[in-house]
Design brief:
By secondary structure, the chain is α+β, with helices and mostly antiparallel strands. Helix content is 31%, strand content 39%. The chain has two helices and four strands. The protein has helices at residues 14-24, 53-71; strands spanning 2-10, 32-40, 43-50, 76-86. It has a four-stranded antiparallel beta sheet. A hairpin with a 2-residue loop joins β2 and β3. α1 (14-24) packs across α2 (53-71).
């Protein structure tokens, strides 16, 4: 089972997302299974999949929060969806 979060960031931008990713660099993100981010008409949205809610919360408080502050990130994050105990399926790539 996994933990999934969908966050809408009104006023956020992909430029700031990439800046934060640069600050985080190759730092370990224990428990992260996958993340997807993209622009929306009013900012951006992020979908992240973790092995547990605890891993997600530890990353936010220990790594993401300080990186956002360092980047001077602005925007208003809104947690749209939480799925605790989600089933995640990763399909095999199609064979040619």
């Amino acid at each position: 089972m996994a933990y999934v979060e969908v966050v809408d960031v009104a006023g956020g931008s992909m430029d700031v997302y990439h800046q934060v990713e640069g600050i985080l660099g190759d730092a370990s993100r224990p428990g992260l299974i996958a993340v997807a981010a993209g622009a929306t008409p009013v900012g951006m949205a992020i979908v992240s999949i973790w092995d547990s809610k605890q891993s997600c919360e530890a990353f936010i408080s220990g790594q993401l929060g300080p990186a956002l502050a360092q980047a001077g990130a602005e925007g208003s994050p809104n947690l749209l969806l939480q799925l605790d105990g989600a089933e995640v399926t990763v399909p095999e790539p199609a064979r040619a």
